[in-house]
Amino acid sequence: MRRTEETSLAEYVELPLDHFGTGHRTFKNRFWVAESGYKGAGHPVFIYDAGESSAGTSAHFRLHNKLSFFKQLVDSFGGIGIVWEHRYYGESSPVPIDKHTPLREFKYLTSAQALADVPVFAWNFSRENFPEIDLTPASTPWIFVGGSYPGMRAAFMRETYPETIFASYASSAPVEARTNMSVYFEPVYRGLNAYGFGNCTKDIHAAILYMDNIMANESASKKLKEQFLGHGAGDNSNGVFAEVLESIFYTWQAYGVEGGLIGLRNFCDWLETDETEKPGGKTAGAKGWASTEGPQYVVDKWARYPNFVTLVNAAFGTDCEGPTKRTSRHGDCSLAKQTSIPASISWLWQSCTEWGFLQSANIGDTQIVSRWNSLEYQRSICDRQFPDASPVLPQWPQDVETNNDFGGWDIRPSNTFWSGGEFDPWRTLSPLSSEDWAPQVDLLNYIPACNVSMAKSEIFGYVIPNAQHCYDFQTAFADGEKSRNIFTRALEKWLKCFKSANGYSY
């Protein structure tokens, strides 16, 4: 069937479940193709990796919406566009994924196995509408595009399979595995201050330290939890409640201070305004309320935040009543649950077995997360989701082994462009990281030569000012265009050196 600009039907390719063993099990991997803008032999194939989610919800937008940066990229080069679904996500899993999936079935959910899927697919790729054109990597350049975990995969694909992937765009790619990722919250702290919410940051810090001390006393801790969430909340552990308090930051990486009713702007505006005064309320000064009214005042305001319980219930799948509903009905406010969302289960497995990325409290002067959300508590989430996995889950920390396998932030694949947002929490584990303990590489101000790897001390990339996670993939974010343009110019240069087995040229 010939595809149109308006739609692409899901297609499936049969792949080995185990690329590195002798087993014969296979599974079907889902993908979508847009070829209506293809200009013929020599023009690239672009593959957009959907990563740790079902690709079905975004494939149409990526391939056909004029606001999609990926469609714009594919069309500008007259290429074929593919949206690729990662194994064990969406409909690309050998088994149904739920809380009851046997642990032995997760054996083949590894980053190495998932990377190996792509070459098998690429070297057998063809289209009915172009039967005479060799679309495999032998004659056609394949370009891998991804952001976040798919951004990691973009870099790893070029590093591991350069004969398959000719060039890569790695956006917001935390390629350095790290078990303890408390650093996640440092860009949030910096960003809030940079965006003019310093008083809110100071009050969150003061309230967190104050509540940490309260939670050291069992009876006081129970009252505190019920103050925020209502009946039944006091039975939750301090670690779980600490994770609940952290939920105000859930929207940061995608929206910064925005995010509508559950965004940080809304929360900070509430926290820093005395709603008892009319009209409009009195706003806290630059040092926040805690410096004058005390931290208890801030805690009480936080507990009254109208959207907090709604956010918690949505995030944790609970039915907490909240502090204002004094009814005889006790809502389900047990927050320590296994997730039942298939994509969350699969990604938790990958985090627990390979990458870590455990977002524990950033203890210190910039602390905005409760110390009860410790590394031990974060690890317990893995144990809770996979209670019988002790023979399967590796000894922690496992990040050294993972970085040995994939290279961490020292990898410098040729024909690869890296980007990241200034206040992106995941930039901290990217080669673009500015943390004191990061490599501190120099950003190149020129396009490197085709097929030439960089030294570890430098990298071809761009840090987008006042941006968070994958903001270069948002066409509505003006400053992201510069990042996309750098990659486009680089790709135009690199394509000139592609050697086609059939003599095609771009």
UniProtKB/TrEMBL annotation:
GO terms for molecular function: dipeptidyl-peptidase activity; serine-type exopeptidase activity. Keywords: Glycoprotein, Hydrolase, Protease, Signal. The keyword Hydrolase applies. It comes from the Eukaryota. The keyword Lyase does not apply. Transmembrane segments: none annotated. InterPro entries: AB_hydrolase_fold (IPR029058), Peptidase_S28 (IPR008758). GO terms for biological process: proteolysis. Belongs to the peptidase S28 family. This is Peptidase S28. It comes from Aplosporella prunicola CBS 121167.
